[in-house]
Amino acid sequence: MSINMNKSILISVLLLSMPLAQATPDIEHWQTSRGIDVYFVQADELPMVDVQLVFDAGSARDGDKPGLANLTLNLLDDGAAGMSGDEISTVFESVGARYGASLDQDMAQLTLRSLTAPEPLATAVDMLRKVMSQPDFPERDVARERQRTLTGIQARWQSPGAVAADAFFKTLYGEHPYGHPKAGTVASVEALTRADLVGFYQRHFHSANAMVAIVGALPRSEAEQLAEDITADLPAGEPLPALPAVEPADAQQVTISFPSAQTHILLGTPLLQRDDPDYFPLYVGNHVLGGGGMVSRLFETIREDRGLSYSVYSYMMPLQQPGPFVAGLQTSTEQAEAALALLREQIKLFIANGPNEAELKSSIQNITGGFPLRIDSNSNIIGYLAMLGFYDLPLDYLDTFKARVEAVTAEQIVDAFQRRLSLDDFVTVLVGREDE
Questions:
Q1: 39-69 exposure pattern, b = at least 16 Cβ within 10 A, e = fewer
Q2: Separation CA 226–CA 319 (nearest Å)
Q3: pLDDT per position as a tens digit, 49-74
Q4: pLDDT digits (tens, 9 = 90+) for 219-247
Q5: What letter does residue 46 receive in the DSSP assignment?
Q6: Kind and range of the H or E run holding 140
Q7: Contact 150, 190 (CB under 8 A)
């Protein structure tokens, strides 16, 4: 073995043995002159800045036009201030900046990554401001993006996992806006017009419906000015009404025939809001049950012990209104009935008895041990800032996260699971080939 290779191994061992940094980022908060909340972390390691603008304009704001929020967001950078989409992209690329946009049920997010050098940053910020404040929604681009979206919807029909997810949310939430796919349906997207997009933009992309997150190598004074510059052209507006309440799901089982080698199974119920007082007992308990990957109980019992599933998991999706608790697996059609029965049995047992001492200790160590990796980059940190700001969580959320996880007891988990979850309320969806 060469000396260089020995040296590389030694360095690797030393790095692996070094304790991970435990410090959480120092989060600062203020409002712009127009009352827009700003969350900021100074990170001087690289001469870069990440900016995230968050609007309460997720797919839950589609109303009776599923896909409207998605299509509107995707068209913002296709034409703005008289510039074409190609011209906008060229401006960002010319200064090494990266623009992005993403959508979930609650939030529409615009992102910018730029060098902090004054000239490239000013150019990138000016372009972002135009995209956000002066979109043109050119008719030709609306037609093209509509067709691209329709193609994507049709492609989802070829995926049993996607079919199962769409059917699950529709069955779980019914007519509530959480129940429709973010991209919409073929019928709803075909019916969307440019006027619909302009109207959605005007109702949702304004100063009363926005927040800003910034992470990067800037002093606070420059971050304050950056937030002012980015939001300077946003129109004024009125706060939006709360989303409609989520009604309890009607327990039922839906089976969809699909020509696939595996059967996809999902079951669950509406459960959790982001600021829920039961969040930590439910979160830690779910990690034991099915959220901890290969160390979770569902993985051990259903995949490892019985070999009934290729993949098995559970997760929670906290939202403004109660988001779902979901348990799922993929298995061969011949084993689907047995796998579903065992999945139900394990969830029922966990609700009744909770974790044992070894499971709880292992999960807490797994969560807290991996926590530094969840805040080890600017992109990770800014995601947390967006979450804290949008859901109005306390500034010390990251500081207290590990302690609150470590404080969870088995008794608290049993109490929360028994109060909040019952298999009698679960919706179940199966998608796969019919067993011959």
A1: bbbbbeeeebbbbbbbbbbbbbbbeebbbbb
A2: 29
A3: 999 999 999 999 999 999 999 999 99
A4: 999 999 999 999 999 999 999 999 999 99
A5: S
A6: helix 139-156
A7: yes
